[in-house]
């Protein structure tokens, strides 16, 4: 490779400049501090008096690599060979050259240097350093096959691997090979080292929920005193990123307690915790986290990822004004910031605000991506904005160079279906350039439930059974369509299909946070300590909603209500019980927030609308797809859900 004589490296090595010890020490210090140009400039003007000193050469090689001066590394290599320092005389220099070549992507030269080493006469530690450098270089450039080939060669040469070897190999390994490296680490007595254990936890976490379980096992096997911040962040993120939000929050609770051994969370920790709070609707924990952020991290607004997590938390937990305020305070916003806020407004049914925000984002020069388009189309669907949704979907490719994916088609089928345009939704599915998946057909089936269309529902259900035969929710949906259309024989047939396949309906559950505790309710659940009072109140409210006599204006019932409550009470969905608990335990005028795992049914929707007017209270209910704010006898969804 030709050398540019104007570069610091070329000037430094022109004429093979010699160095005395003080100069070498200063070069090493400058390199260690990242002041690479100064290090190379010092070499150029160093003390030329003999004898030549080699201590500065490794640092010089590292500085050249940091400045992408490939020719400088080659000159150092040539100079070292001429002085007899290679291939084995100076292990530190050898490592520096191998590392520098690897960082610069000149892996053939790194392999050549490794090939030139006489295995029999080279010290074992020098060999290990050399192999580790090449393995790390291959891993850096995403060449897993080359990594493993060098590792096999290392094993064949009877060179013992160490933690450095594993830290390069494990992240590069496919999921199926990670347990093998784990076993090797355990056999070599390295698995208990904090760095190796942290690496295993992080790598296992990429394997979904099953990988998170393995990550948790590695973490639990670590001595508590050896768990550092990286350990906690790795295992917490493993659960948060794989939808295991309850486990993530439990780990955070342990971290903040005696198990944490005084380890304080950082922004990475808190992002994972806030993500889990958003997923669960755990407002109390999330508010505590935000309080910690404001007290301990005063400059948090410059941390874009943390601010995005806070915006997403507030938007998904029903606090849109807080989300908007945080968004407005950010000195720099990314597309993730816009996505979190737009999606939040969409979940609350404020499609007009979501569209306005999207247009503002585009006007500020931020190019939309596929994720934000899903949020925008979903917002249009929730708000019944057919024309706007159709426009944005049809112009995705022409305006933003984005090709619609299955998620975008699912949003559009949902939008068309909600609007009662079932035939148009079927035509859209037929025109898709890819095969429709269960979610697309499921959106059509959901629309058939709204509009009581069993014929189109049967078509969608037929495809779903082929694509997702074990998804019990779709069987229940089809059964409900048959129930609504009076086809009881078909209801029995679908239920028989479920029995034959061993499928069970996912139980509906709702929960309310109160005074730091989460109160969980299942349908017809009598396990809560306040169950008697809760059911009595639900019965009174049902009677008031239906206008039955015997109910005084303040909600107290006459004796027959208590008698009815003493009988087995069935048919009460979980959201009714959760709201009744909230009415019994919260102050008048305060908002009651309920999180539900399934879609709110029509009966409960009518009930909650009426009770919000009777009790003069606001209920914010987050179901499986959106928010409903019940207040004054009406719902924010305008009965469009």
From TrEMBL:
Pfam families, alphabetized: DYW_deaminase (PF14432), E_motif (PF20431), PPR (PF01535), PPR_2 (PF13041)
Keywords on record: Repeat, Transit peptide
Annotated InterPro entries: DYW_dom, E_motif, PPR_At4g14850-like_plant, PPR_rpt, TPR-like_helical_dom_sf
Domain DYW span(s) in chain numbering: 560-641
Domain of life: Eukaryota
Residues in PPR repeats: 228-258, 334-368
SUPFAM superfamilies, per database record: TPR-like
Protein name: DYW domain-containing protein
Source species of the chain: Urochloa decumbens
Lineage: Eukaryota, Viridiplantae, Streptophyta, Embryophyta, Tracheophyta
